[in-house]
Write a structure and sequence with these properties.
Elements: H1 3-20, E1 25-26, E2 34-35, E3 44-49, E4 64-67, E5 73-75, E6 80-88, E7 92-98, E8 103-110, E9 121-122, E10 127-130, E11 141-148, E12 151-153, E13 164-165, E14 174-175, E15 188-192, E16 197-200, E17 208-211, E18 214-220, E19 223-228, E20 233-237, E21 244-248, E22 251-257, E23 260-265, E24 270-274, E25 282-285, E26 288-294, E27 297-302, E28 305-310, E29 318-321, E30 326-329, E31 333-338, E32 341-346, E33 354-358, E34 361-365, E35 368-372, E36 378-382, E37 390-393, E38 396-402, E39 405-410, E40 413-417, E41 426-430, E42 432-437
Parallel strand pairs: 1-12
Antiparallel strand pairs: 2-14, 3-4, 3-13, 4-11, 5-10, 6-7, 6-9, 7-8, 8-11, 11-12, 15-16, 15-42, 16-17, 18-19, 19-20, 20-21, 22-23, 23-24, 24-25, 26-27, 27-28, 28-29, 30-31, 31-32, 32-33, 34-35, 35-36, 36-37, 38-39, 39-40, 40-41
């Protein structure tokens, strides 16, 4: 049997199933179409796929339900225009995007008002809002739909009940007439001991010298943020040859989370804003020593107290640790160092802490946790909070984790390994002081 006739049989089965379920389903396109052009808007566990509610049947259910923690940032699956942003009785706070090729994506049950407005152009991965349980919902989750020319798109090949999806990963469906957006390179940013900022787009690629007189660097997707020795916080958005945009003066640290920026001033006050060119800075804390931001969460250590907020910048603070010296955030996890012990919690802000290991630095990102102790030993675990540690480096003075990559500064080198904990280290830049990996 030829591939064409096999596709014809599968298409007929899919359409017939859609009719039986009472849904007008647009079947996935032939293999010649572009696959994976859209990306997963959030990460989490699949609890419903079209009419299959993972244990029940609902013919009026037209998308996939992805269970996640309230407040997790929702990213746009593909570049488009905001066609709707507001309240619906069943979907709660909702955003609809219109895309090329007659496609439309919908994002339901957001915890608060959308982060975008009707008519706004958004890029792939741009934050649209945050996971919630508004409207007709029984718990925090994102209801995500894809439609084409008004008909429900058949997403069943890409989602399995009880399975998990990773935010930002390609949706494994072919999308006719959609061109995949260029992936963000696997950037490694290094501040050398002489203050030079160096970057690589791949582990074995060319070293690019980006800037001099740099004290700190932060990276997220295509954004690079730095603090210069003169106290200026600056951002480069896009390719490595893009220009620098001055954000703030008299700063000593900066963190970038998508198009959100958090700055720690030399006076100990922390500020945050959404939008690179926005002038609407919000003062969020005083007497601050540590800042972080990830997936719609902002965290600070203020007067030794670790506090986290999720969602809009003006959301309320939640105290997560009474005496902390380090803090790291991810969409699902929070890490702190308290009393010389690295602790991590997973889920809502009031979840219980799980002690990890003695440490002075902690990094949480995705399914990995990294800890560096006072002796420079670096340990990483992948998976559940109670998983096993892997000793990955000695003499480490800095470390970072992003996706399937681990980076340390050890022996004067910035070193990266991927994809497994037992992979070999690759020396990427010498005379390193700080290393940062760009989250995808």
């Amino acid at each position: 049997m030829t591939r064409v006739s096999a596709w014809g049989r599968l298409r007929a089965i899919g359409v017939a199933a859609g009719v039986l379920l009472g849904i007008a389903v647009v079947p996935a396109q032939p293999a010649s179409a572009q696959t994976g052009a859209m990306i997963q808007p959030v990460g989490g566990r699949v609890t419903g796929v079209l009419a299959n509610r993972c244990g029940a049947t609902d013919s009026d259910h037209y998308g996939v339900d992805i269970a996640g923690n309230s407040g997790m940032a929702i990213g746009a699956a593909y570049p488009g225009t905001v066609a709707f942003a507001g309240w619906t009785s069943g979907g709660g706070n909702m955003v609809t995007l219109s895309h090329a090729g007659g496609y439309q994506t919908r994002y339901l049950h957001m915890v608060g008002a959308a982060s975008v407005a009707v008519g706004q152009q958004v890029g792939q991965g741009q934050v649209l809002g945050h996971v919630g349980s508004t409207g007709n919902s029984t718990g925090p989750h994102l209801h995500f739909e894809i439609r084409r020319h008004g008909a429900v798109y058949d997403i069943r090949p890409a989602y399995v009940c009880g399975g998990t999806v990773t935010k930002g990963a390609p949706i494994n469906l072919p999308f006719a007439d959609l061109t995949p957006v260029n992936a963000v390179p696997d950037r490694v940013l290094v501040v050398r001991t002489d203050g030079t900022l160096a970057a690589k787009e791949s582990l074995n690629g060319t070293v690019h010298e980006l800037k001099t007189n740099v004290t700190r660097v932060s990276a997220d997707r295509d954004r690079v943020a730095v603090i210069s020795t003169n106290g200026a916080a600056e951002v480069k958005a896009g390719g490595l040859t893009a220009g620098w945009v001055t954000l703030f003066h008299n700063a000593r640290d900066v963190v970038v989370d998508g198009d959100r920026y958090v700055v720690l001033g030399t006076d100990g006050r922390a500020w945050a804003k959404d939008g690179l060119y926005s002038a609407n800075w919000a003062h969020i804390s005083s007497n601050t020593t540590v800042i972080d931001a990830a997936d719609g969460r902002i965290g600070v250590i203020e007067n030794g107290v670790a506090k986290v907020k999720e969602g809009p910048i003006n959301a309320s603070w939640h105290t997560v640790a009474a005496s902390a010296t380090d803090l790291s955030l991810d969409g699902a996890r929070i890490g702190v160092v308290e009393g010389g012990t690295a602790k991590v919690k997973e889920g809502p802000l009031n979840a219980a802490w799980v002690n990890q290991a003695a440490g002075r630095q902690v990094v949480v990102e995705g399914y990995r946790i990294a800890v560096r102790d006072d002796s420079g030993n670096a340990y990483v675990k992948a998976g559940p909070l109670n998983g096993s540690w892997e000793h990955v480096a000695t003499g480490a003075t800095d470390l970072d984790v992003a996706g399937n990559r681990i980076a340390v500064v050890s022996g004067g080198w910035a070193r990266v390994k991927e994809p497994n904990l037992n992979s070999y280290w690759v020396d990427v830049v010498v005379n390193a002081r700080q290393v940062a990996l760009a989250n995808q």
